[in-house]
Design goal:
This protein has one domain (about 30-155): Glutaredoxin, CATH 3.40.30. It is globular. A seven-stranded mixed sheet has the order 2-1-5-4-3-8-9. The protein has a two-stranded antiparallel sheet with strand order 6-7. The chain is α+β, with helices and mostly antiparallel strands. It has helices at about 40-55, 55-60, 75-85, 95-100, 145-155, and strands spanning about 10-15, 20, 30-35, 65-70, 90, 105, 115, 120-125, 130-135.
């Protein structure tokens, strides 16, 4: 697993609007990467809606939130529209970025293979990981109190 204090691996993924987004293009901003298993599931929706409803905290901290799953851009577009998410959802359909960040289940429920683990990575303006949490239990959510405290200190 990637550890705090190490450089965040760069990547480029398509968002739900079919635009390519790279981590390196966000240098100069704090970035909160939220890997999630599947669009439209209850825990994922609860987690991402809480972030949506608290987006001012991240905007005020010059932080870009990015949701990442192995769902297709088409599924993510519908999910984003249905839930009115105010941050990009990125498709890691080929599972490369989830694997790079140590956030990929080999086997998940219903014999699904290669699904993103629920994970959170807070990356500072210089591209250094400051917080890393990879959850084995998809029913749990990241420690947003710890993330938000650290984010406040980064500014």
């Amino acid at each position: 697993m990637l550890q705090p204090g190490t450089p965040a691996p760069d990547f480029s993924l398509f968002d739900s609007g079919k635009n390519k987004v790279s981590l390196s293009s966000l240098q100069g901003k704090n970035v909160l990467l939220l890997f999630f298993p599947q669009a439209f599931t209850s825990t994922c929706t609860r987690e991402l809606c809480a972030v949506r409803d608290d987006i001012g905290r991240y905007s005020n901290a010059t932080a870009q939130v990015l949701g990442i799953s192995v769902d297709s851009v088409f599924t993510l577009a519908r999910y984003k529209e249905d839930q009115q998410y105010n941050f990009p959802l990125l498709s890691d359909f080929n599972k490369e970025v989830s694997a790079l960040y140590g956030s990929l289940y080999e086997n998940w429920i219903l014999d699904m293979k290669g699904v993103s683990k629920r994970s959170a990575f807070l990356i500072d303006k210089k591209g250094i990981i400051r917080y890393a949490e990879v959850l084995e239990n998809a029913g749990e959510v990241p420690d947003f109190n710890a993330i938000n405290e650290l984010l406040a200190k980064l500014n």
